[in-house]
């Protein structure tokens, strides 16, 4: 797709950061990604198979900062809703909005306090929605948990986390990274690791590496389960990882060993070895006992 003329001669991002006084704030978890090759790669990863661009629906970006990823999304044809809590960045984003010819809407808000789909609809931005963001490290996990609780009209999420969190999202049973977040995420989404980024790619460089993950909401959860029961089961199973399930599930099941055997699950197994489907089966047993 040819780059729109209005976006072809944008000033260097480092100049934008300097001109608007956008030194990264530690309290906001800011680490700016200024390399256009990397932000373009993230934008390309947000396309669905067979798509030439991102013109279908709306892309929601949280924490755009000076607009590096925003530029790539716009160049890829996206209609973008940018949610930014840092008021210092609004002037820089307003300059970009002028070049975007109506395809960039920016709102000043805390993403933890709003529903992104509702915000998009309020501004007349159509579904389906894709959330594509370099998430601030300090709120990445809480944001994801909020979004998992309401996936309506979200077609895909392409998100950057610190590497440790990204590994947890895509971890498989019996691996060191496998835990509550792995189960709850994979129950609702197809989670695929895409690529990593070194700390040196960011300004300022964080102390940890980062990674980009694709999360595609499933048409239906991987297996039937009540979400509240599943959360309690995973909290109990992973609260003390070395405990056997017959011990860790005592607060939730009257006779844990008997219940587990009825599900063809070894009562002496540990939570980290169970698949998502098995966790759902345990959650159904808990619900059947009134848990």
Brief summary of the model shown:
With 291 residues, this protein is α/β, with parallel strands linked by helices. The chain has helices at 13-19, 36-45, 68-75, 90-100, 116-122, 140-148, 163-170, 180-188, 227-239, 245-248, 256-262, 276-288; strands at residues 32-33, 58-62, 80-84, 104-108, 129-134, 154-162, 189-197, 202-203, 210-217. The mean pLDDT is 94.
Provide a descriptive summary of the structure in words:
With 291 residues, the protein is of the alpha/beta class. Helix content is 36%, strand content 18%. It has two domains: 213 residues, Vaccinia Virus protein VP39 (Rossmann fold), CATH 3.40.50; 62 residues, Orthogonal Bundle (Helicase, Ruva Protein, domain 3), CATH 1.10.8. It is built from twelve helices and nine strands. Helix 2 crosses helix 3, helix 8 packs across helix 12 and helix 9 crosses helix 12. It is elongated and about 70 Å long. The model has no long low-confidence stretch (mean pLDDT 94).
CATH class annotation of the largest domain: Alpha Beta
Helix-strand topology string: HEHEHEHEHEHEHHEEEHHHH
- Main sheet strand line-up: 4-3-2-5-6-9-7
CATH H-level superfamily of the largest domain:
Vaccinia Virus protein VP39
* Proportion of residues in extended strands: 15-25%
- Global shape: elongated
Could you say what the CATH topology of the largest domain is called? Rossmann fold
Structural class: alpha/beta
Kindly report the average pLDDT value.
94
Strand count: 9
Report the radius of gyration as a whole number of Å.
21 Å
Helix content: 25-40%
> What is the CATH architecture annotation of the largest domain?
3-Layer(aba) Sandwich
Q: How widely separated are the two ends?
A: 54 Å
Low-pLDDT residue spans: none
Number of domains: 2
């Amino acid at each position: 797709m040819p780059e729109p003329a209005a976006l072809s001669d944008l000033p260097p991002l480092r100049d934008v950061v300097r001109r608007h006084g956008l030194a990264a704030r530690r309290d906001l978890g800011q680490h700016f990604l200024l390399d256009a090759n990397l932000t373009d790669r993230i934008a390309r990863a947000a396309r669905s198979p067979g798509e030439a661009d991102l013109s279908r629906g709306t892309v929601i970006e949280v924490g755009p900062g000076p607009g590096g990823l925003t530029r790539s999304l716009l160049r890829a044809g996206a209609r973008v809703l940018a949610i930014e809590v840092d008021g210092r960045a609004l002037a820089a984003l307003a300059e970009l909005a002028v070049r975007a010819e109506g395809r960039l809407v920016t709102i000043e808000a805390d993403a933890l306090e709003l529903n992104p789909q509702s915000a998009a609809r309020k501004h007349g931005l159509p579904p389906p929605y894709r959330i594509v963001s370099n998430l601030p490290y300090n709120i990445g996990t809480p944001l994801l948990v909020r979004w998992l609780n309401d996936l309506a009209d979200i077609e895909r999420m392409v998100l950057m986390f610190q590497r440790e969190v990204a590994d947890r999202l895509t971890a498989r049973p019996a691996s060191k990274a496998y835990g509550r977040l792995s189960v709850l995420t994979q129950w609702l989404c197809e989670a695929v690791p895409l690529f990593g980024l070194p700390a040196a790619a960011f300004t300022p460089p964080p102390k940890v590496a980062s990674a980009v993950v694709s999360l595609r909401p499933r048409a239906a959860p991987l297996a039937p389960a009540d979400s509240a029961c599943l959360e309690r089961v995973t909290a109990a199973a992973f609260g003390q990882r070395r405990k056997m399930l017959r011990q860790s599930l005592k607060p939730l099941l009257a006779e844990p060993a008997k219940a587990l055997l009825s599900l063809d699950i070894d009562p002496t197994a540990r939570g980290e070895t169970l698949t998502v489907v098995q966790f759902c089966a345990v959650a159904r047993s808990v619900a059947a006992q009134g848990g």
